[in-house]
Amino acid sequence: MTVTLLDCAVLWFSAIVGGAVCIHHDLRARRRVPAPPLPLARVHGESRHVTLKT
């Protein structure tokens, strides 16, 4: 089974659209919920970056 450039383009497009929709829903949900304290958010962001690197 060969993967054509069109298949790659469709996969990338769906991934970008899906990510944008997830971010949009995350921002809408976060607007309703009070924001966490800054240290907690910073630690969460750093741990997420560490898991992405490994």
General description of the model:
The protein is mainly alpha-helical.
Keywords:
54 residues; mainly alpha; 2 helices
Total of domains: 1
Strand and helix order: HH
> Largest sheet at a glance?
none
Total strand segments:
0
Q: Which residue ranges are poorly predicted, with pLDDT under 50 across at least 5 consecutive positions?
A: none
Topology:
Blueprint: H1 5-32, H2 38-53
Short description:
The protein has two helices and no strands.
